[in-house]
Amino acid sequence: MSEKKNIIWIYVISVLFVLINAVFIAQEQFLFALLPLGLVALLFSLFALDKLILILVFLTPFSVSLSYIMPGQSFDMFLPTEPILLVVLLIFIIKLILENNFDRKILNHPVSWAIYFNLFWMFITCISSTYPSVSFKYLLVRMWFLASFYFLATQLFKDFKNINRYIWLYVISLCIVIIYTLARHSSYGFFDQEKANVVMIPFFKDHTIYGAILGMFVPILAGFALNSWYYSARIRLLIISATVLILAAIIFSYTRAAWISVAAAFALWAVMKLRIKYYFVLTGLVTIVSLYFVFETQIIMELEQNRQDSSKNLTEHMQSISNVSSDASNLERINRWKSAIRMFNEKPLMGWGPGTYQFNYAAFQSSNEKTIISTNAGDMGNAHSEYIGPLSESGVLGMLSVLLIIGTAIYTALKLYSYTKDRKIKFISMILLLSLTTYFLHGFLNNFLDTDKASAPFWGFIGILVAMDVYHNKKEKTDSDHEKVGT
């Protein structure tokens, strides 16, 4: 009898949902249809949170913005990931308050403290923001990315196998998106640069974020492909195929920033492999920066002689990277940066509020710096920098908090790579550092950490480094450390 009653209730609830949803659809309100997804996410959050995090990672490359599905909404989000991320954040906060048993070794890690400082200062500048509702929403988005992809993910990574699962779930779905993108691109011809900017829609909004994510996974796949001891020969054949696929994708993305970041990551790999002392590298970087300021006028004059615009010819497209005289993309980026600096000069301590750059930068554009793609309304997006953006939105401490996160993450990776006796940890820490380096460098030219696409690998990879530092860097090297992960 009880089973029959349960079945009856299931039918009643299902019929009610269908009827209510029909009413909403008749009024062109489609969001109610997401209710079952929210309920499923809630059940997973309560009873299988580890599996839900892995599902989220797999779904992230497939997520589509609400504005693409239903244009004209007053707000936007990525579906299906962000509603699930919100549910996970709420469950995470409730468990923190009620149970108060989250691992304090993670909570007290230097990377975590850097994240607290970043969130704290974002909260302070949300209060003083020129658009508080925008800023608090921006902060909320940052919090649900961190809850799932950093804090909860570190607990997932207590099991070393979940580190590989996290990486591969993202890679598998990303490869599916790559195949979709290349298939669309092939119909226009791979050397159609204009179509290369949009063929990844709806999964990526444009080629810049698509290229940034591809760049992050080049060192990882190349590392797996080149290290015969980590995976069996059969699995490595699949990895090599995926590596070729992602290299083709990054070439035909026409994303110059991604090309530069990948090249820099492999330069860092050479430094690590050759065991060049880090202070030599730092000395070299300081010298290069100093020489730039000494010969700034001559360098700028030389760069201004480059008139090569973006091109479908890959060689010419590469040459256009240094064109600061006529390339509209480069000039518009400089326009955004200079606008951000002017915004910072007016509010150097508190900034204009997290996420508000796009609503404020119009008044700070200089007429002689505008380009053919500039708008007087200043409604074309963000500051195109993970560093200058926070500088204008949250002041000097906002940028310093970002640099502190990056610095502690790099320190953790280098510490693991330099001192661990476990070959697996040394290898994973190296490829993750190279992967993150591509984004740290890409962050000078673009900013995507307000999206799920970039946040899942960025915060997840930092979470892996922290988890390895806390949970897996304790034992002496054993024979099992040399066993292949795949069979």
Keywords:
single chain; 487 residues; mainly alpha; two-stranded antiparallel sheet; 2 strands; 1% strand; globular
Description:
The structure is a single chain. The protein is mainly α and 487 residues long. The chain has a domain at 104-283 and 384-476. It is 69% helix and 1% strand. The chain is built from 21 helices and 2 strands. It has a two-stranded antiparallel sheet with strand order 1-2. Helix 9 packs across helix 12 (233-252). The protein is globular, with a radius of gyration of 24 Å. The relative contact order is 0.12.
What's the SSE blueprint?
Blueprint: H1 2-26, H2 35-47, H3 49-59, E1 64-65, H4 66-69, E2 78-79, H5 81-98, H6 104-107, H7 110-127, H8 132-156, H9 160-188, H10 193-196, H11 207-226, H12 233-252, H13 256-273, H14 278-294, H15 296-304, H16 314-319, H17 328-346, H18 357-360, H19 388-419, H20 423-442, H21 452-472
Antiparallel strand pairs: 1-2
Helix pairs in contact: 2-3, 2-5, 3-9, 5-8, 7-8, 7-19, 8-21, 9-12, 9-21, 11-12, 11-13, 11-20, 13-20, 17-19, 19-20, 19-21, 20-21
